[in-house]
């Protein structure tokens, strides 16, 4: 094994170890947001390490740019999907509120807010929802 | 390099088994979305490890497809669950009743 192979092997093993930590975190952690925190480790750092190892191993092959493309796509898409899943998790009340240190979306009291998100004075938070959403329901 | 392949596939396999356990027992739909995302990332890592260890580039387009499928799948299912929230407005920690009948019933209410 040459020096490049040693570096590539270290990168590959570290990336695969991060996939194992994702599995452990998904099994052990209590709610959706914590599990997302665990599952994001291989999504960004694990994929970057594995792609680095693969690029080092495959240097000179004609299709190596595709590995770089996969890494760039992961960096671009992981925040978007994490944002959407966590937003829906908060609105569906899948968040363990007794584990929260600070809840910047909720109210400051101990009681649950009547709606999952409070009134935002600056702009409509439901602007991306359909027109027949709970905002459009007539109040009686 | 064979030792590296064995170690990598053992780590990936253990992680995939744990992720599948969460996928099976996950109490909510979002847990399953998150674990499906992690499972697809694990599959992509496995394909990349195979390509790297055996210097075989024939599977690299599959790698790109799997990486994009993870994003599209999780985002579309998250949007779908958001639509369920808007349609039925469920109680705390309840799975809502999905379907057109609930929506029609609400519209017919005075």
From TrEMBL, chain A:
One GO MF annotation is: sodium:proton antiporter activity
Q: Keyword set for this entry?
A: Membrane, Transmembrane, Transmembrane helix
Q: Which Pfam families match?
A: PhaG_MnhG_YufB (PF03334)
Regions crossing the membrane = 6-27, 64-90
The UniProt annotation puts the region (Disordered) at 107-140
Provide the family line. Belongs to the CPA3 antiporters (TC 2.A.63) subunit G family.
Name assigned to this protein: Multisubunit sodium/proton antiporter, MrpG subunit (TC 2.A.63.1)
TrEMBL record, chain B:
As one GO molecular function, the record gives: sodium:proton antiporter activity
Entry keyword Acyltransferase: no
Q: Where are the transmembrane segments?
A: 33-54, 61-82
Membrane association type: Multi-pass membrane protein
The source's domain of life comes to Bacteria
**UniProt keyword list:** Cell membrane, Membrane, Transmembrane, Transmembrane helix, Transport
Q: Where is the signal peptide?
A: none
Indicate yes or no for the key word Cell membrane. yes
Gene Ontology cellular-component terms for this entry are:
plasma membrane
User: Which InterPro entries does this chain map to?
Assistant: MrpF/PhaF-like
Question: Which spans of this chain does the record mark as coiled coil?
Answer: none
| Primary localisation category | membrane
Localization terms from the record: Cell membrane
Q: Which PANTHER family match?
A: NA(+)/H(+) ANTIPORTER SUBUNIT F1, NA(+)_H(+) ANTIPORTER SUBUNIT F
Instruction: Tell me its family.
Output: Belongs to the CPA3 antiporters (TC 2.A.63) subunit F family.
Q: What is this protein called?
A: Multicomponent Na+:H+ antiporter subunit F
């Amino acid at each position: 094994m040459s020096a490049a192979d040693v570096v590539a092997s270290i990168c590959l093993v570290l990336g695969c170890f991060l996939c194992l930590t994702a599995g452990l975190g998904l099994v052990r952690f209590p709610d959706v947001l914590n599990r997302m925190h665990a599952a994001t480790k291989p999504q960004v750092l694990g994929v970057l390490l594995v792609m680095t190892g693969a690029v080092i191993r495959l240097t000179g092959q004609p299709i190596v740019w595709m590995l770089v493309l996969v890494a760039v796509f992961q960096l671009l898409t992981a925040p978007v999907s994490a944002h959407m899943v966590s937003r829906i998790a908060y609105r569906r009340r899948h968040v363990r509120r007794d584990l929260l240190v600070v809840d910047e979306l909720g109210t400051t009291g101990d009681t649950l807010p009547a709606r999952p998100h409070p009134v935002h004075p600056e702009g409509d938070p439901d602007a991306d929802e359909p027109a027949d959403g709970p905002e459009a329901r007539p109040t009686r | 390099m064979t030792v590296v392949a064995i170690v990598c596939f053992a780590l990936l396999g253990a992680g995939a088994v744990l992720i599948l356990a969460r996928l099976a027992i996950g109490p909510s739909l979002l847990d399953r979305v998150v674990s499906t995302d992690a499972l697809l990332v694990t599959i992509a890592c496995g394909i990349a490890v195979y390509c790297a260890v055996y210097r075989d580039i024939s599977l690299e387009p599959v790698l790109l497809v799997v990486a994009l499928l993870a994003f599209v799948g999780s985002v579309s299912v998250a949007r779908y669950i958001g639509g369920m929230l808007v349609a039925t407005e469920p109680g705390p920690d309840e799975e809502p009743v999905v379907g057109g009948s609930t929506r029609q019933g609400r519209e017919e209410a005075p």
